[in-house]
Design brief:
By secondary structure, the chain is α+β, with helices and mostly antiparallel strands. The protein contains eight helices and ten strands. Among the domains are: 84 residues, YebC, transcriptional regulation domain (Alpha-Beta Plaits), CATH 3.30.70.980; 70 residues, Alpha-Beta Plaits (2-Layer Sandwich), CATH 3.30.70. The chain is 44% helix and 26% strand. It has a four-stranded antiparallel beta sheet with strand order 3-1-2-9. It has a four-stranded antiparallel beta sheet with strand order 5-6-4-7. Strands 8-10 form a two-stranded parallel ribbon. Helix 2 packs antiparallel against helix 3.
Amino acid sequence: MAGHSKWAQIKRKKAANDQKKGKIFSKLLKEIEIAARLGGPNPEGNARLKNAILRAKTEGVPNDNINRAIQRGAGDKDKQQLEEIFYEGFGPGNVAFIAKVITDNRNRTSSEIRHLVSKYGGTLSGFNSVRHLFRERGVVRVNATNINEDDLIAKVLDLNIEDLKLDPDGAEIIVAVKELGTCVERLKSNYDITSAEIKFIPTVTQAIPDEETEKVLEFFEVLDDHDDVQDVYFNAEL
């Protein structure tokens, strides 16, 4: 959990300080578009789309932009479509990573990701090559001060909750993927839910020497900053 938690903190800080809202919006709208294409345009029957819309709204994406992305995803299937790809491999320090990508040009993106990974001394490997080092879970982020932990636990006690952590800004709840939507429904009337996502959380972490920490973090920040990369997951123990 160390790498996951540290990266989550970095991502939140990065997003808070990022002035390039256009890039953030673009990534969120890509997720909405592909979610609508794969699961249909109705968020009530498409949990992935519902979660994507929630993420977009918490980042301030206008409703008109969200609706247009849904329409594009549910539109003409013969037109050029976005494609979801997962890249797996090892970065500097032999850290395992999974990068979730959404692109309209697989060849271009594959070439760019391969070059970036190689530049930092890493290697790409095949699909499912490192996935056994992670577990796929739902992660709900609640922003609030002075959370009553007992009350929060009571609302989700009967769900398959794997972890619940409080911090100065709120709480993070890790739940089975199939119960992510139920967890959100239980909490949304009493708490400000800022994200509800499916993530890959490391089960085995890789210790990083202090002298390599900066390079490892730089690699993952650069990878995460690529226009087509939606999310990056890794197992570094930071």
